[in-house]
Protein: Active regulator of SIRT1
Amino acid sequence: MSASLLRRGLELLEPPGRAKAPPGLQRGRAGPRAAGAARRRKRAPEPGRNKATVKGRVVKSAIEEYHKKKPVNHLRENLQYMLKGRLVADKAVTEQVLAQNRGRKSKDQPPEKTEKKKPESTVFTEEDFRKFEREYFGIP
Structure:
């Protein structure tokens, strides 16, 4: 957005009783030389050292830079922090929290645990069956 459009927009937003600023106080170009002066001001060299020269530069060691950026293993501190607090919540409380955080859709529900049926076994032994056969059928 140009400065002139911005000024026009601000003039529209001014309250009606307020007059324009006098021409001497207005900011803007004061003639064709003003733009050139602004360019010259931008190009003026700043005082300071010349960056093209090597004088005054500190040589950085590649090994020191590598050691600075080397990843640090925080496993030991993290384990000590985790083992410091040994408060374990009740199983009922944890189940309740998990149930509240679970969604209501069927896909969010955990599968129901079905009890494993034990294979049916008889109370009678093989000897009891033979004894019954002898008594009932009369077979020796």
About this structure: The first helix runs from residue 3 to 13. Residues 5 and 11 are 10 Å apart (CA to CA). DSSP finds six helices and no strands in the chain.
